[in-house]
Write the structure tokens for this entry.
Amino acid sequence: MIHIFGAAHRDSGLAMERGPAKHQGIHPSYQFLYVVHGTAEVRTDEHSLQLHKDECVIIEPNQSVLLSLASADSLVARYYFSDDLLAETFQQLELHSGIEKDDLSQHSPLKRVVNQMLHYFMQNEGAVDYHVISLSYETLHHVTMIYGNDSSQATKQTVRESSIKAYIKKNYRHELTLSTIAAEFEMSPSYFSRYFKQQFGTGLVEYVTAYRLKQAAEKLKRTDEKVSLIASETGFSNLSNFNKKFRQQFGLTPKAYRDENNEFLAMKQLPVNQSQTLDALQYFSEAIAPVDYIKEVSLHSAEKMGRNGSPWATLINIGSAENLLQYDIRQHLTLLKKDLNYEYVRFWNLFTKGMNIDPDLTEDYNFDKIDSVLDFFMDIEILPFIELGYKIRRVQRSTKEAVVYDNDDFKFSLNSKEWQELIEKFMVHVTYRYGTENVSRWKFELSLNYSSESEFLEQVKHYDRTYKIIKKYAPKVQIGGPGSKPQNTGKYNFREDLKKLAQKGIRFDFISYMLYPYLEDEKGERFAKMIDDPSFLAHKLDEIEEAVAYAGYADLPIYITEWSNTVSNRSVINDTVNKGAYIIKNMIGVAHRTSGIGYWVGSDLFGEFADSKAILHGGTGLVTKRDLAKPAMHAMRFLNFLQSNILSIGPDYIVTKGPGDDFSIICHNYKPLHASFYQLMKENEVKIDELSEYYIDSEKKAFRFSLEGAGSKRFELKILRVNDVYGNLISGWKDLGYRTSLRKQDIDYLSRVSDPQVTYEQLHTHNGKIKTELVLEANEFVYISLIEMK
């Protein structure tokens, strides 16, 4: 147990239990058990309870408890609250305990803060700081408000009522007679009967029966126990009487209730009028609640925070040069150029056997296939960003498992005569064919990938010689590096190694790095650990900027040539609205901080293989193999709609301004994945219909943007939304039953449902001000355009 509440409260704190395991013991504090994931069984001397995800229970102090977690995916949080800790605020407070479970989904403020605390606590590997202490006290606040009974503040009458309820809860499984309960509370049976009806509005027998039936209904919904056993366990000694009472209460036999309840969540429909009423009440409750952000932005006098550099539009990764000989890949790159107007396409493996470059056969190299690729770039007006290093083709399920791991197709050694002659011949060829002026607009990168000091020195020499050869033929062309992974702590210190490069006089025209949220140590990539940081990109860029300045390269542009939140080509995250919101969140954080950032990758075709028959298979691309836009593609489109001047920026919004009174706004409600996803799961194992279970919460978020100083004008308000219903291929594919065999009309349907929702409205200024308000669902992201109407 971690003593979150300090040394003065050694019996209070937090423990995380993972399965498979059993924990037995007696503890002097209250225990609040919460199932984060999977299932758990809780046994005391008298009771046994099965808990499922999001269910919780409070156990009284000094009870013998056996907690069993049968499977490896079970994760349980145990909060311990001692009487001394509770007494700091309440003179006398009791928690409604026993062995009654509750669904935390019914208490959203408590669920939210519990998950926030667990997320932060596990992200920091159990370290205690002021933030986790704050969240712990907030958790305690909600627990006491929901489950507490402060008898020091209550009247004698309310204490007695609470005591009677608690007694019935504790003993409802056993025979309860009027005389027994009356004696417990030192009343005569006749007086207790009158008192109970006066305080509770019903007779004792009716109250106990209704409570027993409620518990029986829960067991019918959540277990497969026999009806006769459930009747017995909930205090009914006669099965016939139980069936009769149950039918009177619920209008169904116990068996029919169980059968119907199996499909209750999917099939239960509210009457139309009631549904509309609930929607309206929900809307108004959101409208009057405090919004998360209220931005006051002046149309004419707001100071510009900076220029929007649109680094996301600079380059896109597409794959190896050999991939670019394929018709489908070219079609996708043409689509990406048209829709997102990328300036550069980054690719690699230009000098391989597959591209007719093999020094073992001939050094009179045939550049026809290379010309085919470069000619195609010229045709669609996109520039090459050539990674000169070799990348073995890997299609990965996770860091630990690859679908495809191709053999090496590269015949050139570091610093070899053959390599230097190849680069000479290549540069002579391209400057002659395309002209020195055109080639000077290209970019070259040579990544350094080493695991020892000797490898580092050899690769530095290789880079330096290659740099000088290329510059001899195209002096103005830009060549960059080191192209490493700064999150890799096991092989090198990227900050100190960059300093070494500067000290050796190594010249870069730009600094490049690759960023993926994995921590790799001496064991290598297969044992890399996912980093649980939704703002990983911005945080790591802080470190890169500091390292570049420290090394003496501060005047050079920085390119993040590869980035994503996963390397898996089989992760359902890649196909979701959550991925689009993740892109928005991270790109907002770097909008004016880097010269270019290359998303990994442009097309799902990059990871296509025998196991990727389905239209969505967790590929890392922006578009599917059938040319359909994923939410990630919409996120990039929205970003491209932003104007050139940044007026205001925050963690979940950006406001930009163009010429005149034209404004573009993006906001999002990104939900981080819960710590259990990183602790328990392989990222490729989560199913489409399971992913929502791993979000930290599902709460909505409200925004209000107020634009002032417009005088008397009319504006057109355009809103584009991507959420679980609109712009989401998964939603349309679900309608088709997740079929892998799709007809043309199915693809046409998916194309239609994958479009964002678009709404228009005309607004008039009122006292020189316009306000626009909107509420975002979990993981929804929105683009807002406000244009003055002439």
